[in-house]
Amino acid sequence: MSVPEPLVSFRRVQKTYDGELLVVKDLNLDIRRGEFLTMLGPSGSGKTTSLMMLAGFEVPTHGEITLAGQSLRDTPPHKRDIGVVFQNYALFPHMTVEENVAFPLAVRRIGKAEQKTRVARALDVVKLGALGSRRPGQLSGGQQQRVALARALVFEPKLVLMDEPLGALDKQLREHMQIEIKHIHDNLGLTVVYVTHDQGEALTMSDRIAVFHEGVVQQLDTPQGLYEQPQNSFVANFIGENNMLGGTLEGVDAGSCRVRLDDGTLIEARSGCANDAGRRVSLSLRPEKIDIEPQGEIANRLRATVKETIYHGDHMRVRLDVLGNDDFTVKMRYRANRVVPKPGDTLSIGFAARDCLALDAPH
Ligand code: ADP
Ligand code: MG
Description:
Layout lengths: L7 E9 L5 E10 L4 E5 L6 H9 L6 E6 L2 E2 L10 E4 L11 H11 L4 H14 L15 H13 L5 E5 L7 H18 L2 E6 L2 H7 L2 E6 L2 E6 L1 H6 L4 H6 L4 E11 L2 E6 L4 E6 L8 E6 L5 E2 L7 E12 L3 E8 L2 E9 L12 E6 L4 E4 L4
Parallel strand pairs: 3-8, 3-9, 6-7, 7-8, 13-20
Antiparallel strand pairs: 1-2, 1-4, 4-5, 9-10, 11-12, 11-14, 12-13, 14-20, 15-19, 16-17, 16-19, 17-18
Helix pairs in contact: 2-3, 2-4, 3-4
This protein binds adenosine-5'-diphosphate (ADP) and magnesium ion (MG).
The site of adenosine-5'-diphosphate has 10 residues, from helix 1.
């Protein structure tokens, strides 16, 4: 079976603004037709720059971007057939909602009657059908963002780019809009490239996520793949909650390995690192995979001192000092007759080899 051609391809794309520092280093990324792909990473990691090169508002210093197999090199932004939504949605304040949404159609010289039909349809999609004659100043932040979304959808682009579109909204509205945008994506069969620094948002919405760090994609994977098989310590720390312990690799066989911690303890771990003994690695341990005072056989045990306990209803978070990492967190589920640790206690923690992943430093 042949692999379908990607809708978008970044090929060896680099970008520098000052002629020295590469803020996008060597971007190779295929975006599939119909997928919801998120560029996720901390501030300054090159997400917006990558999106702006795809939209046509920035020019790659090196490399090429293709859309449906065609190079975009000589195509100006308004001829790319790409809808764009930014965080500062920049609606025209003196125009009504309908006029704002009609704007891309007017630019494209679409007839008035056709404009009316399409604007009504786009406002319907974002559930603003009744507010077409208002001005932006008469709308809430969430409603204004819906207008921006309708304006990006109105000319029925195959590809929609969104850069932190929900950043200005409060938490509840943001979570609501995440679901709505996802539904619009599914219902219209759009391809969406979405930028956020919020890993929860990325996990909720995306088919695949490209994790950015210092201008380099560290991993491109499904949400589950990123959480369960992070490819390096940056991804493990950025996606979900994570504890790290440093050590030296002693031996690798068939996916498992042994890591010597700095106090001499030998840990049995799953191997997610390069296979040469003597290299420094980070052990990644998720808070929900660690047992406090484990009973019976368990591959790994370490001593810990309790720093703090925090009640969370269905579970308790216990912050520990483990080998000098004093921000080591364990999520403890309640069980009957269980002694609750308190600050100052020393206790043992345990974890299985499969729940402890040895990782390299980021690329
Ligand atoms: P992100 O969206 O991940 O926060 P950006 O792509 O906006 O990252 O920025 C990447 C780097 O490029 C940052 O160091 C930023 O300061 C720099 N940068 C972004 N835009 C410009 C610009 N127009 N001129 C100069 N430097 C810029
Ligand atoms: Mg940005």
